Amino acid sequence: xxxxxxxxxxxxxxxxxxxxxxxxGAVPSSRKEVWTNKLGFFLSVMGYNIGLGDILRFPYLVxxxxxxxxxxxxxxxxxxxxxxxxxxxxxxxxxxxxxxLVFYQNLCPxxxxxxxxxxxxxxxxxxxxxxxxAWICFYLINSFMNPLPWSExxxxxxxxxxxxxxxxxxxxxxxxxxxxxxxxxxxxxSKGKSPTEYFFDHNLLSLTEGIHDLGGxxxxxxxxxxxxxxxxxxxxxxGVKSLGKVVYVTALGPYVFLLILFIRGLxxxxxRAGIMYYLTPDWSSLATAQPWVEAAxxxxxxxxxxxxxxxxxxxxxxxxxxxxxxxxxxxxxxxMTSFFGGFVTFAYIGDLAxxxxxxINCVLKPGPGLAFLVYPSAFDTLxxxxxxxxxxxxxxxxxxxxxxxxxxxAMYQSLIDEYPILRRWRNWAxxxxxxxxxxxxGIPMVxxxxxxxxxxxxxxxxxxxxxxxxxxxxxxxxAYGSGRVRANIRLMTGVRMTIFWxxxxxxxxxxxxxxxxxxxxxxxxxxxxxxxxxxxLAIAMGWVFASLGIVPLPMYSxxxxxxxxxxxxxxxxxxxxxxxx
Length: 581
Hints:
transport, SNS_sf, about 575 residues, globular, single chain, glycoprotein, mainly alpha, amino acid:sodium symporter activity, Na/ntran_symport
């Protein structure tokens, strides 16, 4: 069995090392810098969990998978997968005070590849996520214009004939039951692109014919990508010291904006009908596998286990912090935020659907479509449309920044611990280099053909995430032991955990993760969007990208075994004996 050593040094002031650690570049042997207060840690992990997917992806999944009935598989997997993984990762991160690479090295050296999987996942997540932040900044800037640039068709624009603005009714004579009629989706769609669709396609993306033609650079988006990375860099320049202060704004601010948008949505004529649609269950949908699989995938999207972020954030806790309470509270808070965000989304979507005389399922679009097509259309129909648009995109900016903070810090701290020589350089210079490298990988996505790359990355981003999570659970529970995890939590918090947790960790988690991983692979289909089909070469590149998130696990094991065999063979070599006459 593996062993992990606790670091029980008294908490040090942020920016200092505990236990009189040296400052000559060596990794401190005791607990490193800790949060200035418990709330800083709590808000940082909360921001890590509550991201764009909770507001943009969750409502679409609810609509797609039986309305309110989807909440049953969602909360089932929250408590059978999300909470147990969270308890395990946070508790071990706090107990050891180590980042993922050092954590797995101490647990069992041959499993260190799991830590590398975490780091690579964090790196590419940030590359991909910052593109969304650049888009959000683009819409935020345009939200200050009067009128909103996506409110009308611009007759002077190129291909202006493709733009068509349908008449939106102000009388609301449409029956709420009409919102569930799936047969009326093409009433307006056949006449051309709406102003919001035209703005998204031509002003934001300006797409080429395919991924083979990246076209020219979108210099405005490149500037906004640089601005987004500067924001992340400035907020993290002093590590958890600055992060613990920034999250008071970026983690709590979205709740203020969500509440404002919710109150406004309640008073929209179609808002309550939209909320009723959100809560009305279609129980027959639960008889199929799709809602259950997509509920589990959403848990992984939201809580992001097996990415190393939770372990890294918890490693900065004081040893006796009540991590058990935090581990139970944070996943539930994330789920309730998604649930509340659904009320906000469906209030505006319901009102927009009634204005257009269409069903909600025709209006609601997944992912970027919800943020950049549906919400802007809904705000365009309201008085003070610029105000609501600004509030919404500031909300998205805060949510995106929060998630980026933790994934970047997890990657950075892990590499600093792995390569202590980096500590000899100034902290600001090393972080600046990390930001520059990360940004350079995102530059192809802000070309005119960049959306094709973005979609490919988005499609394959979490392909093997459940596989990594499965290996993580097996490594911790069977190489280290579930009993030791419970003992660690009792040592830190005084909480005596029941055998229920052993059953969940040793049986439920591995079985569910294996089943979900197999089903995800079986249900794979090639990437596509808006009728565009990727070439075989592009799909192969997608699989190469997906494999980067799991290949380090076997590769590092093979490397370590080969290295040990080579070292053993060298030690057994004997010096030749002289010939005896």
